[in-house]
Amino acid sequence: GAGTATAVAHPNIALVKYWGKRDERLFLPRTDSLSMTLDIFPTTTRVRLAPGAEHDTLTFNGAPATGEARRRIAAFLDLVRERAALGHRAVVDTVNTVPTGAGLASSASGFAALAVAAAAAYGLALDATALSRLARRGSGSASRSLFGDFAVWHAGVSAGTAEQADLSSYAEPVHAAPLDPALVIAVVDAGPKAVSSREAMRRTVGTSPLYEPWAHSSGADLADMRAALGRGDLEAVGEIAERNALGMHATMLAARPAVRYMSPASLTVLDSVLQLRREGTAAYATMDAGPNVKVLCRRADAQRVAAAVRSAVPGRAVHIAGPGPGARLLSE
Ligand code: DP6
């Protein structure tokens, strides 16, 4: 009913990465990025207005949200309250199905689901573009989880006012010819991140001599990626994704002090991907702000790729994902 809404959203993995902000408060990125939304590990978020309550009540998988997660969600709700001109606190229950310690980012699915549910609960009638812009304010990559399959997030205009920049930075679907892709996700290390992605981005943009060249070449990667998706060329999609991701990690290795997310096990998985290619299997690696490796391949090859990865790093969890749906409201 009115004042209560539940939404579900899925994680996304960038094939052309978002790495670096030009405005931290507004979550405006330095570059455009492009991702595939997954069909596994949804986040479901229920928002219920609590008129008269003094505080937001936030639970995450049944336990009270604390620390940085609590602060980010409360700040996000403040933004929604300001837009809706409605000050009510809320009860927010989030159920996240990413296996605990899988080291996969849940902020993208989390803030996409929260944006959709909170907008509905606070009575904001927002279209998909406005929801994407709103989700961006919780976590940049969440802007892309509004959409299924492939989505591009526009960095937006840099000249002009902050409002013009904010209005022009949103995600939208990208056309792709049939690809039948899969992402094989190797969880090489389930421990907490050494450096948060926010801090790592800041340090990279501020100190890495490789950052500007990567940001520049990322523009070309995006154009090439759109063309490769448009013609359904999985080999090209994979090659572009791999070079873009390894380049991003190179920018971090050159930061001062260096940020290194790759572990020995990550490199072992990267070796197994090279070996698969030598044997004629289209398999390409991408990595985010952690040691896990995601391998893009054809759906028909996914089991074989997963088996190769499992034997490279025995005992680690390996998940297979396909393209998934965009964020949506569940009917109450
Ligand atoms: C490496 O979206 O988690 O996964 O905007 O600070 O919340 P914040 O960062 P976040 O960063 C994602 C970085 C990445 C690449 C990507 O998803 O494009």
UniProtKB/TrEMBL annotation:
EC number: 4.1.1.33
Pfam families noted in UniProt: MDD_C (PF18376), MVD-like_N (PF22700)
Entry superkingdom: Bacteria
Class of this enzyme: lyase
SUPFAM superfamilies: GHMP Kinase, C-terminal domain (SSF55060), Ribosomal protein S5 domain 2-like (SSF54211)
Residue ranges of every copy of the Mvd1 C-terminal domain listed in the record: 184-315
Domain (Diphosphomevalonate decarboxylase-like N-terminal): residue spans on this chain: 9-158
Keyword Nucleotide-binding among UniProt keywords: yes
Keywords attached to this entry: ATP-binding, Lipid biosynthesis, Lipid metabolism, Lyase, Nucleotide-binding
GO MF annotations in UniProt: diphosphomevalonate decarboxylase activity
Keyword Lipid metabolism set for record: yes
Family (UniProt): Belongs to the diphosphomevalonate decarboxylase family.
NCBIfam families: mevDPdecarb
Full protein name: diphosphomevalonate decarboxylase
Organism field: Streptomyces rishiriensis
